[in-house]
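Can anyone check this?
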Amino acid sequence: MRGPTGGKWLRFGGRWWVLDSVLPGGAEQVKGEPPSHDSQVLPGYVTLIGPDTADFDAAGMHTMQYVPSEKEPPGCA
């Protein structure tokens, strides 16, 4: 996962995705330590649910659901 705004943006499959919702559960799906608040990299797994929906799961976090974005995140060159 890559993005400057705390998980709001995701670069996946050659395009930018923006956070749509946070789903309850999912925290147990990925084993490991929860991410550091100082890190700009969040290791985890992206699952393409459909052409316009992707789920991201990371250790100790709820499932984050993303939708494609027509724009790039702020601060990208």
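Reply from J.R.: I decoded it. The mean pLDDT is 80.
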